[in-house]
Design brief:
The protein is an all-alpha fold. The chain contains 10 helices and no strands. Helix content is 76%, strand content 0%.
């Protein structure tokens, strides 16, 4: 049923997503991944309190990442650091390694280690030049630290990446179906 939910989500069919997740969460042995997916299907960002409630019952890497990010955003830096360390070093099957590392970078910046955070974010961006997420993180770091030159550099890079992505999509759309 989780696969049905993922397929429906990719197609943008919210009703089918809800039905598939409801089927996946029925019965005695509930799939924690399905329970968390069902919880977050209706809303984009549940609050920290709700995430922590779910964290007591469910232990999924995606939920732990969301809790650590929310804690970082809410100024609970010590708790967020512990959560990120668990995800980075102790828990197999992290939901998205790049997203986890970018969350860790954001935490470092909030703790006052801006130079280290910027250096790490630039390393991630260099290793993934076509990924917008590291560029967005670098823009956020520059904005938070009032670094106008870096902000301008990374906004320009973001525009170039979006333009490149748009051209690639147009080229793929222009190709005949048989090639």
């Amino acid at each position: 049923h989780m696969m049905d939910a993922e397929l429906a989500k990719a197609k943008g069919k919210a009703g089918q997503v809800k039905k598939a997740l409801k089927k996946a969460t029925k019965g005695r042995s509930k799939n924690p991944y399905a329970v968390y997916a069902r919880e977050t299907a209706g809303q984009s960002n549940p609050g920290l309190g709700r995430l922590e409630q779910l964290g007591k019952k469910l232990k999924t890497p995606r939920l732990q990442l969301d809790i650590a990010k929310a804690q970082s955003d809410n100024g609970k830096l010590v708790e967020a650091e512990a959560g990120f360390e668990t995800l980075l070093w102790g828990q197999a099957g992290a939901p998205d390694p790049v997203e986890t590392v970018l969350g860790w970078i954001d935490l470092l910046d909030r703790k006052g280690e801006s130079d280290t955070a910027r250096t790490l974010a630039e390393s991630v961006q260099a290793s993934r030049p076509d990924d917008l997420r590291p560029v967005n993180q670098l823009i956020n770091l520059a904005d938070r630290n009032d670094d106008e030159d870096s902000a301008a550099k990374w906004v320009t890079a973001k525009i170039r990446l979006k333009k490149k992505s748009r051209k690639a999509k147009e080229a793929n759309a222009a190709k005949p179906a048989g090639t």
